Amino acid sequence: MSEPAELSYREAVRSAIRNAMQDDPRVFLMGEDVGHYGGCYAVSKGLLDEFGPDRIRDTPLSESAFTGAGIGAAMGGMRPIVEIMTCNFSLLALDQIMNNAATLRHMSGGQVSVPLVIRMATGGGRQLGAQHSHSLEGWYAHIPGIRVLAPATVEDAGGMLAPALADPDPVLIFENALLYNDTARVDGLAKADIDHAAVRREGTDISLITYGGSLGKTLAAAELLEQVGISAEVLDLRVLRPLDEEAILGSVARTRRCVVVDEGWRSGSISAEVMARISESGFWNLDAPLARVCSEEVPIPYAKHLEDAALPNTDKIVQAVRKLLGR
Amino acid sequence: MGTFTMPSLGADMEAGILVEWLKQPGEELSHGDIIAVVETDKGAIEVEVFEDGRLDRLLVEPGTKVPVGTPLAEIAGSGTQAQASPPPEPHVPADAPVETAPPAPPVSARPEAEPVSSIAPIFGAGERISPAARKLAYDKELDLNALQGTGPDGAIILADVQKAAGLAAGGANRTRPRNLAPMRRAIAAAMSRSKREIPHYYLCHSFDVSAAREWLDAFNGGKPPAERLVFSALTLKAVALAVSEFPEFNGFYGQNGFSASRSIHVGIAIALRGGGLAAPAIHNTDRLSLPELMLAMNDLVSRTRAGGFRSSEISDPTVTVSSLGERGVEALLPIIYPPQVAIIGFGSVVQRAWATGGAVQVRPVMCATLAADHRASDGHRGALLLRRIEELLSHPEGL
Description:
Chain A is of the alpha/beta class. Chain A has helices at residues 9-23, 47-51, 63-75, 87-90, 94-101, 104-107, 137-140, 154-159, 161-166, 215-227, 245-255, 270-281, 304-310, 314-325; strands at 6-8, 27-31, 56-58, 79-86, 117-122, 147-149, 171-176, 183-185, 198-201, 206-210, 232-236, 239-241, 258-265, 291-295.
């Protein structure tokens, strides 16, 4: 198999779907416009021609129905990949995800498993208004019984699908829509680990803990901070449920300071959970209050200047760090 | 304006000697600050203040002996801060028909007669010291008040303590000489009163502690000495958890009979070098993990032996544990410390021939005893309490 030297995040996801379908006849893709239109973010473009309408299935506009169908197919022995256009729309399927997919193993005493993968786009910054721009992955990370992944790199976009399909329980993959055009040189689509966070940049003065669409902004902030003599470590959570608490506490134990960067709203967010875990288990290591950069607590605006102001950005991260360090 | 009065630091305390002011007029005070040292029959005790404000005027010279309730200083309210919660006053002396009431100023520094139960959380308002800095200062026995903070808004951060630790190695240890005669008198008064007034009943129960011993060995294996647990941390936690289910052993017997305490502050009897005994409390024992409990015990024992326990620690144990440790004997029949209603004794762990599963084996066996106030509880419940302690120690992983 030949691998392109330069691969986009979108192509990485597509290749991962293609590989999974070639490797396992039980795998199929289902969702709104995934077939003839090629997916609303063009992830599945070309797959209909390659695999046919039985395995690349366009569905009616009913998230609850096709997610429920995916759950049923998974229970029946298939390995469905359900694509939901944006996480805003996933709320129409929340009953299926939370009350069925996440609970069936537990309510059946282990007799039934739901090996389902749900992919969805998340995040703002594309002037798509409040109905299409929210970051709800932190909500899903609240639910026991599912695994929640947030690939932030091309490698993870391509490498997380196979282990997600191999997981006997439901896995939700949140793809930040701003990342689809990111490119990287990758050697091949290696299977990624779906249990651990990853240190993307080492540093000694502060831990910047982030995931998904905020990783790039955070790495850029770390570069700027380097210029003023602040050495920032960047931890990519990668897995929002279950949280890699050891990596979080380990990083903060090294740097003794922490800023969490999360595109979700701060109230009741995954950033709140990360901070709570640090307070619970890492308190005596801290040399500064915990801080975070989140989206403003408004429905993400349509107008560009307002949307820019509402979302985390590199400057906000730099300011938060400098305030914490007093320099 | 509030008034800081000579606190009652025990059921039998009538007066105390103001030894030393640790704050000077003009200094800002926060809830929990140690303001003065008072010599009582139990030794020198650091006394905390329970409101925020500024120390306005000292009313009593060091070296003066004054009755409980005498105003010692005036505290000007900060104006912006709400009054901090009053300290709990579990010690209502059962034999004092009339409390030595402090003069009642508009805002009393130590209001009397509030509920027996919860300890108000202490939020240090105003001072900014990072947890890492506090921990190092604690390990190095450094006085944080003497440091200049270089963090944001003058916060004391780890680097400040590290710097000070490099300079101030050695010599920072504050210990006070102790006159044992008054302590002997205090023990005599409290124990005589206990035996005179409290209808004690005693229960003994010996049981196999191999599960707890093995768990402890496994837990400590490979850990540096500083992180290891001692056996009495397990027994202490077991007592705290057990009395949470048997509230009639956790609280105080006062003029209106028994009142249970919602919080569990287990007092630990600490033998002092050179003689004497004190039983200060570990606050909220039931809510501490074993490593936290171990840390609290080490801290309390070392401070107590150095004469540095705090007023809230000496005045509010809700139940007491007395452990004989390695060099003791098989069992003890302890005496209740009034106005508490129970004390639990643990003898030394001894190797005994023990019938188990139809065979005789050599097992580590410990005798737990309960001395309880029959006015507050009955022997049946006491027996269940000891059984529960045994059960908790048989499953040490749950402690």
